[in-house]
């Protein structure tokens, strides 16, 4: 979800990764990016530590419009658009229609983040579930991956996916389940993405889940500006912070940083079809201020 977290102090950059990898879920707008120059600067900071691409995620309609623009400003950025479950209390047909139009953009690589969030009480469960079902259908109609937000709602998320019939590719963003849920997701063919919490000392159940996920089903993400990994928990997060999560996850799984980063990049390429993205549009098509030119 978006917010003002981009104003927090950023930590000094980590040691670069030995090979390139992809931040599979970030919120560049909430990191403080507004213009094309801001996006370029954030991706330059990421590239300096070998995080060479990122998927920027929308959680409401203004963020969706911005994410699509950002994906056309910088070739290193792709977008995912949806209405976050906490934003679904009162959604109009016009809003759903615009999300559908934006999701069809060729530089949008997923429908998300959508799902269920029973932690916050911003939207009734019934409204969240109806919107989730709509997004599942949209992902199937567009032939794009479904990117799931699941907070304190594991059983209902899995149930609705079974009832609706999951899209070909399902990504659990910032996976938060235990080993049993991870096994169920793996058996269903889903992809699990891990963020900063997998590095937290009190995340034993999550760490047990992370160990058993096959190497071809794992992604890494920042969810920036949220969930900054250890040892900088509580400070501002950004794509350049991803190496801390990669190294923590690699240590848990007993593999090298190089292998984990390479697996995550290869999986992101496959899941999001990054190699098939069209080139960014000319700079005069999407204005640097965020307004599309005539």
Describe the structure.
With 294 residues, the chain is α/β, with parallel strands linked by helices. It has one domain (17-275): Metal-dependent hydrolases (TIM Barrel), CATH 3.20.20. The chain is 38% helix and 15% strand. The chain has nine helices and eight strands. The protein has helices at residues 36-47, 61-73, 93-103, 125-142, 154-164, 179-188, 204-212, 242-253, 257-272; strands at residues 21-26, 51-57, 77-81, 108-117, 146-151, 170-172, 191-194, 218-220. Strands 1-2-3-4-5-6-7-8 form an eight-stranded parallel beta sheet. Strand 3, helix 3 and strand 4 form a beta-alpha-beta unit. Helix 2 (61-73) packs parallel to helix 3 (93-103), helix 6 (179-188) packs parallel to helix 7 and helix 8 (242-253) packs across helix 9. It is globular and about 45 Å long. The model is unreliable at 1-6 and 290-294 (pLDDT under 50).
């Amino acid at each position: 979800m978006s917010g003002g977290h981009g104003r927090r102090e950023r930590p000094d950059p980590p040691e670069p990764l030995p090979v390139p990898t992809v931040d599979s879920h970030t919120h560049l707008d909430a990191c403080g990016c507004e213009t094309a120059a801001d996006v370029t600067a954030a991706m330059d900071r990421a590239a300096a530590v070998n995080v060479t691409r990122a998927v920027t995620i929308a959680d409401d309609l203004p963020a969706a419009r911005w994410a699509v623009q950002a994906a056309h400003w910088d070739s290193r950025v792709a977008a995912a658009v949806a209405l976050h479950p906490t934003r679904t209390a009162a959604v109009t047909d016009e809003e759903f229609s615009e999300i559908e139009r934006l999701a069809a953009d060729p530089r949008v690589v997923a429908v998300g983040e959508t799902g269920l969030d029973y932690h916050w009480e911003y939207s009734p469960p019934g409204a969240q579930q109806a919107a989730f079902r709509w997004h599942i259908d949209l992902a199937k109609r567009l032939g794009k991956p479904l990117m799931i937000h699941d907070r304190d709602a594991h059983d209902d998320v899995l149930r609705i996916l079974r009832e609706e019939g999951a899209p070909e590719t399902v990504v659990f963003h910032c996976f938060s389940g235990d080993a049993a849920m991870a096994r169920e997701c793996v058996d269903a063919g889903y992809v699990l993405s891990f963020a900063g919490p997998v590095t937290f000392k009190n995340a034993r159940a999550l760490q047990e889940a992370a160990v058993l996920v096959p190497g071809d089903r794992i992604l890494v993400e920042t969810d920036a500006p949220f969930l900054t990994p250890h040892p900088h928990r509580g400070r501002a997060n950004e794509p350049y912070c991803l190496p801390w999560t990669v190294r923590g996850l690699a240590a848990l799984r007993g593999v090298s940083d190089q292998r984990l980063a390479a697996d995550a990049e290869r999986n992101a390429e496959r899941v999001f079809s990054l190699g098939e993205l069209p080139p960014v549009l000319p700079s005069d098509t999407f204005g640097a201020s965020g307004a599309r030119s005539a």
